[in-house]
Amino acid sequence: MRLAALIQRLAQSLVVLLGASLIVFILLRVAPGDPATLLLGEQATPDAVRELRTTLGLDQPLFTQYVKFLERIVVGDLGTSIRAQRPVLDMLLERVPATVELTALAILVAVLIGIPIGVISAARPGSVLDESSLLFGLLAQSIPGFWLGLMMISVFAVQLRFLPVAGRGTAAHLVMPTIALAFYVLGMLIRLARAGMLDVLKQEYITAARARGLHEAVVVLKHGLRNALIPIAAVLGLQTGTLLGGAVVTEAVFQWPGIGGLAVVALAHRDYPVIQAIVLFSAVSFVLINLLVDVAYQVIDPRMRIRA
């Protein structure tokens, strides 16, 4: 990627982050519910609520609050949790490793299973394997993650007692939440890889490669798959950013100590600093992953280096 293009992308990313911070800041302030009232309870006197709002800085004009919020972010200060009275950065750093671990493993499982199934299915269109993979991909995208998680807990944890019900700590704790989180992405990759490969395998250069006597596996994997990877990389980037932003339902079902659970508690208590930090983390994740996807495009297809 050329320097000018990189600078342009970074400038665009900065605008995106600024916009995300502004939107979440405004939405939190206009949403029903007052953090001071939630902390003190419904029986609190108006004077006590007013005093707490002053202590928290919530009585200041919105513009002033937003400017102070941006000033703190610049120096790496995400504020203090209204509910826990702890630095938000510390709370986020405690939760991020669990979410990254679960997301990375879920994406890895989806890639290692979904793309090969999609490629094999495209190489044998109309076969029993092809029809079966299409049905499986459709089901994987149709089954709600929370329902799949509850069913796995009921069967493998409660009845068979093969796996722990919830929590984090061992490899066994990762099995069910990883499957539940990876299932939708897995189905998407199967269908996307199949569709991309079917289109690529009709191209003239594939016919030419076969005419040269190359083995079918070489034609499919070396000449076909590489050209079908660009849309797959784009979808993977979006899905990874989404999952990193907090797989709230999956983490709630399995009591996984990631940022999804933190977000649920923060929303319930209108903990503005925590919610803002989580949204900012999600936005930064999307921006960084999209930059990596752009780099991946140029590795997959060298012709795109000329356009960058």
Structural overview:
- The protein is mostly helical and 308 residues long.
- The protein folds into 2 domains: 3-74, no CATH class; 94-307, MetI-like fold (Orthogonal Bundle), CATH 1.10.3720.10.
- It contains 14 helices and no strands.
- It has helices at residues 3-30, 35-40, 46-56, 62-74, 88-123, 128-142, 145-159, 171-200, 204-211, 216-244, 248-253, 259-268, 272-300, 303-307.
- The longest helix has 36 residues, at 88-123.
- The protein is globular.
- The N and C termini lie close together (6 Å).
- The mean pLDDT is 83.
Task: Give the topology, please.
Elements: H1 3-30, H2 35-40, H3 46-56, H4 62-74, H5 88-123, H6 128-142, H7 145-159, H8 171-200, H9 204-211, H10 216-244, H11 248-253, H12 259-268, H13 272-300, H14 303-307
